[in-house]
Design brief:
Blueprint: H1 4-18, H2 20-23, E1 35-39, E2 49-54, E3 67-68, E4 80-83, E5 88-91, E6 96-97, E7 102-105, E8 115-120, E9 140-141, E10 146-147, E11 154-163, E12 167-174, E13 180-187, H3 198-201, E14 212-218, E15 221-231, E16 243-250, E17 259-260, E18 265-266, E19 276-277, E20 282-283, E21 292-293, E22 299-300, E23 309-310, E24 319-323, E25 331-332, E26 334-338, E27 361-362, E28 370-371, E29 379-380, E30 385-386, E31 394-395, E32 400-408, E33 418-424, E34 428-429, E35 436-438, E36 443-445, E37 454-461, E38 479-488, E39 494-501, E40 506-513, E41 516-525, E42 531-538, E43 553-562, E44 568-574, E45 576-577, E46 586-587, E47 593-595, E48 602-604, E49 609-611, E50 622-624, E51 630-631, E52 638-639, E53 643-648, E54 651-656, E55 663-672, E56 678-686, E57 695-698, H4 708-713, E58 719-722, E59 724-730, E60 741-749, E61 751-756, E62 760-761, E63 764-765, E64 781-786, E65 799-806, E66 815-817, E67 831-838, E68 850-854, E69 861-868, E70 884-887, H5 889-935, H6 968-976
Parallel strand pairs: 65-67
Antiparallel strand pairs: 1-2, 2-3, 4-5, 6-17, 7-16, 8-11, 9-10, 10-16, 11-15, 12-14, 12-16, 13-15, 18-19, 20-21, 22-23, 24-26, 25-27, 28-29, 30-31, 32-43, 32-44, 33-34, 33-37, 35-36, 36-43, 37-42, 38-41, 38-43, 39-40, 39-42, 45-46, 47-48, 49-50, 51-52, 53-54, 55-56, 56-59, 57-58, 59-60, 61-64, ...
Length: about 1000
């Protein structure tokens, strides 16, 4: 059964034959240069046909008729191509090559045919102002490689290939910066993505300047290859682009042509499967079978050059200095050497000469843990001994053990566990140049072959070994690396400090741009695994093949690694001794125990203290936990148990935060970059609990193969497990990527300092202006955290203030917010603020939080109700007493009795008042009569006085009056004696005659 293409070709020939009668007279016959051969699609039997296709349809007549082609599974060997006229495999001529059943792209002066670069429209900001910002973003050919975009735009490099059989695609790449996403995936002709494992889709990071090779299997049929990049969140930081070169695809059935060798390469013999680079000081053009030598007296050419260049006069950029190794006399000197390969000319106008060597000087001492025994070589001290580098090795005293590690502060020769190299961005290694050079009291970056070379210094640590006495501790620190450095630059230089754990992928721990003063940096290892620490220095990020900034330099003065398993000992530390008499064997202490320096025994830390690692033995190694915190059973850290108590005067507030849950999450945003990329910041917060309840943030950009269970446990290569951590979330929508991405996971808080209602603790200040103040009477509780990891911008590490606020209108879980004026949670990048409003943050209810209401007495009964004081500002604790109903009869009886007594008392008081008022009026009347009588003259002569006659005014004599201003008590006594007729009062009145009238 013939294929569809064969039917169409036959139809075309038939139509052409019909037209020969009219137009053949005016057309010429086709020659071999007027057409080319192609195969039709394979039919169901695996057959195909060879047809002739004219270069210009209608220009000639007499095309060869279709003939049966080779089998669909037919292919040629490497170095051969299928000659379509004879349908036989033929060797490629010299100056060209063939892969047989594959194709290769290794020349990138321009974008090869079939490749395209497509920028994906970003999800723009709500204002829609950035719709065209990605039009200029693309993959750029750079000669030997392709370079990706350096911005946030998502750009795809696309190539479609049709395979007759199963094959593969292989390419070399550089991917040094995880601020740029890089994925490789495959689609079929239906635009459906092929099944692909995560480790083949998301490419691993590479060391700076190093090339990695990636291979993916392809299925037969149409395969559309995608290399896709896109920035995460760069800000103002310069991003290292992704580089791709040497793309090779296997699985095509045949190649009908051979590929010419690119300039700078050649193939010497016919039937070559690849081209060789031209040696140094030679060059070649396109499709060369040999290389042409340069005139080395005035010209030079690097390996693989397409042309010769003129040699410039020698200058200070063409030589460098180094220190020689110590000789047998213990002397060293500075010598100068030409940068290799030497390309400059001496003895010409303006050329500089190589400076003479310096004087011989004494070698620096050995590093701690080494000795030289009057030789030129420093040797490590034997196990169990130590040395400061200046004295012979000595055994550790009884009750001590050697500390293992490295301490490099003198640089006469490169230590044996260190390696240095130089990588050029496009040409791999830098022509036998050393990346770093020893210089006595420091080690510094070397010359390099160009300014954008990566100068690499690497130290490998096979693992860590804790001292014997602390080997059983629940260690949060297995070791640490500390180095002192400085950079002096005039260009955009950058120094990287990187780490590769278990040889999985290299990640940048910290980096420093441009000039930095001499300073120290420390990184703590929280995993006991083999690790490689790498320093990479690049003078400029811009493409360059010359040296203009040779004086830009990075210097490292000292490097210290503690607890290295293969380290040497520079000192001895106290250890715990066995309890057996006269024993000198060091024994491990149980977790949470320190070494008593007096007894050399293990002593447990006091309650609510934590054991500080990397500290001297003794009681001071146990640090007291902050307010509102407690230590775990191993005394490894302090944490909150979700309970807090605060006393204000005679009022005590008790809080229970356990209802808030083990881990709280907050995703703020969305935010948009200048390019329109949408992103969120997610914060995971572990409020309470110890090691088992810490928050985990996972970076899945370069490690999508990690399982969910591993990610939850914080076991990924780029996971962060701590009290509070932050991740950057980029949603899949609008970016062209097929999954939401989490990146840039950082540790915000690995130490809990304590909880307090005060606004500050241990130098961390809560800013009251960050959040609106509350009018509630319940105080806010501030949780204070700190991260001990120093960064380039935070010398003291990061700190966090988490404010818990009682809000009965919120749910138990509540709501986490960040300050409105600092939507990222921080305004300076070092101090973070969070507000957690929740009803679960209210204090525990007590009896003072409710009151009693007494109902009216109805039908002899009365209700007693208990209600919460509004607004209710408490949670849990005591419950409201139930409603009570009591009889009220006894109360009515006593109420009537009381009312009667009150009425009787009121009547009595009124009666007494009236009685005394009446008596008082009578007394006043009698008194006035007596006064008037005393002032009259008696009519009877001779009488000395006037007397009251018997029976006169008897009614007025009922009471006796004494004019002597009697007191109220006297009046009452007089009234009391009124009824006694046998006793009377005597009243003495003074008269004008000074005579007294006495009645008895």
């Amino acid at each position: 059964m013939r294929s569809l293409a064969w039917v169409m070709a036959s139809c075309a020939l038939f139509v052409g034959a019909l037209g020969l009668t009219d137009g053949a007279k005016g057309q010429r016959q086709c020659s071999e240069t007027d057409y080319y051969y192609e195969y039709t699609e394979c039919d169901s039997t695996g057959s195909r046909w060879r047809v002739a296709i004219p270069h210009s349809p209608g220009a000639c007549v007499g095309l060869p008729e279709p003939v049966r082609g080779t089998e669909c599974t037919f292919s040629c060997d490497s170095g051969e191509f299928l000659e379509m006229s004879a349908q036989e495999c033929t060797k490629c001529a010299a100056g060209s090559y063939s892969l047989g059943s594959g194709i290769r792209f290794d020349q990138w002066d321009s974008m090869p045919a079939g490749f395209s670069s497509l920028a994906t429209a970003l999800e723009n900001s709500p204002n829609g102002d950035n719709k065209l910002t990605c039009n200029s973003s693309s993959w750029v050919p750079q000669g030997n490689y392709l370079e990706s975009n350096r911005d946030e735009c998502t750009v795809s490099l696309i190539y479609a290939v049709h395979l007759k059989k199963q094959g593969s695609v292989t390419f070399d790449y550089q991917y040094p910066d995880n601020n740029l996403l890089f994925e490789f995936f495959i689609q079929n002709d239906q635009c459906q993505e092929m099944d692909q494992a995560a480790d083949t889709k998301w490419l691993k990071l590479t060391n700076h300047g190093e090339w990695a090779t990636h291979t993916v299997n392809l299925k037969s049929g149409t395969n559309i290859l995608y290399w896709r990049t896109g920035g995460v969140l760069m800000g103002t930081k310069v991003v290292k682009p992704v580089l791709v070169k040497n793309v090779q695809i296997e699985g095509v059935a045949y190649t009908s042509v051979c590929f010419p060798c690119k300039p700078g390469t050649f193939s010497r013999f016919p039937g070559s499967s690849s081209c060789e680079l031209c040696p140094r000081d030679t060059f070649s053009g396109h499709g060369a079978s040999s290389c042409t030598a340069c005139d080395t007296t005035s010209q030079y050419a690097a390996e693989g050059s397409a042309m010769c260049k003129n040699r410039p006069p020698c200058s200070g950029k063409d030589f460098f200095q180094l220190h020689t190794a110590c000789d047998h006399e213990g002397k060293t000197q500075v010598i100068y050497k030409w940068v290799e390969p030497k390309i400059c000319l001496e003895g010409v106008s303006g050329a500089e000469s190589l400076p003479p060597s310096g004087d011989r000087e004494p070698c620096p001492p050995c590093n701690p843990g080494f000795y030289n025994n009057d030789t030129a070589t420093c040797s490590p001290c034997p196990p169990g001994t130590y040395s400061d580098g200046k004295k012979p090795c000595k055994p550790c005293p009884a009750g001590t053990e050697p500390t293992l590690g490295y301490e490099y502060k003198w640089w006469n020769v490169l230590p044996t566990n260190m390696k240095t190299s130089c990588f050029n961005v496009g040409n791999s290694k830098c022509d036998s140049m050393n990346g770093w050079e020893v210089a006595g009291d420091h080690i510094q970056s070397g010359a390099g072959s160009s300014d954008n070379d990566y100068l690499i210094l690497n130290i490998h640590v096979p693992g860590f070994k804790l001292p014997t006495s602390v080997s059983t501790h629940t260690a949060t620190e297995f070791g640490r690396i500390t180095f002192e450095f400085e950079t002096m630059c005039t260009a955009d230089c950058e120094l990287y400090f990187m780490m590769d754990v278990n040889r999985k992928s290299t990640t940048v721990v910290e980096s420093w741009e441009r000039t930095k003063t001499r300073q120290s940096y420390t990184h703590v290892m929280t995993k006991n695994a083999p690790v490689s620490f790498t320093w990479a220095f690049q003078r400029t990020n811009q493409p360059s093949d010359v040296r203009r900034f040779i004086n830009d330099v990075a210097r490292i003065y000292s490097i210290t690694v503690t607890n290295a398993v293969d380290g040497v000992s520079s000192e001895c530390r106290a250890c715990a001794l066995s309890a057996q008499p006269s024993s000198s064997t060091c024994v491990p202490c149980p977790p949470g125990h320190y070494i008593d320096p007096h007894s050399s025994q293990c002593t447990e830390c006091p309650p609510n203290t934590h054991l500080v690692s990397h500290s001297t033995p003794g009681p001071d190694a146990c640090r007291t936990c902050g307010p509102g915190s407690r230590s775990d059973k191993d005394h490894s850290l302090c944490y909150s148990d979700c309970h807090f108590t605060y006393t204000d005067g005679n009022v005590t507030f008790t809080y229970d935060f356990s209802s808030l849950g083990p881990v709280g999450s907050l995703m703020n945003g969305p935010s948009f970059t200048s390019k329109g990329t949408k992103y969120f910041h997610q914060f995971n917060i572990s409020l309470c609990g110890g090691q088992g309840q810490l928050a985990v943030c996972q970076d899945n950009v370069t490690d999508l193969s990690v399982t969910d269970s591993q990610r939850e446990k914080g076991e990924g290569a780029n996971s962060v497990k701590t009290f509070i951590c932050q991740s950057t979330i980029i949603p899949a929508s609008g970016r062209g990527f097929h999954t939401a991405l989490t990146s840039q996971s950082i540790n915000l808080a690995d130490t809990f300092l304590g909880a307090s209602v005060e606004p500050s603790l241990n130098g961390i200040q809560a800013d009251p202006e960050m959040f609106p103040q509350t009018s509630q009477k319940v105080p806010d509780v501030n949780f204070f955290y700190r991260s001990l990891e120093k960064t380039a911008s935070c010398d003291m590490g990061r700190s966090v203030v988490l404010t818990l606020r009682c809000n009965p209108q919120k749910s138990t879980k509540g709501e986490l917010t960040v300050p409105s004026k600092c939507p990222a949670g921080t305004c300076n990048g070092c101090t973070f603020y969070f507000l957690w409003e929740s009803s679960g943050a209210c204090p525990t209810c007590t009896e003072r939080d409710y009151h009693r209401i007494e109902g009216a007495c109805k039908r002899g009964h009365q209700d007693l109700l208990y209600v919460w004081t509004e607004p209710k500002l408490c949670m849990g604790g005591v419950t409201l007493p139930e409603k009570r109903t009591l009889p009220c009869e006894g109360m009515d009886f006593w109420l009537r009795v009381g009312t009667g007594l009150g009425a009787f008392t009121a009547v009595l008081l009124v009666s007494l008042t009236c009685y005394f008022w009446k008596k008082n009026k009578r007394l006043e009347y009698k008194y006035s009569r007596l006064v008037m009588s005393a002032n009259k003259e008696c009519e009877m002569p001779g009488a000395d006085s006037c007397a009251v006659m018997e029976g006169e005014n008897e009614a007025d004599m009922e009471d006796e009056v004494v004019y002597s201003k009697p007191s109220l008590l006297g009046k009452l006594k007089a009234i009391a004696s009124k009824g006694n007729g046998e006793s009377y009062e005597n009243v003495q009145l003074s008269s004008s005659n000074s005579k007294a009238l006495v009645w008895s």
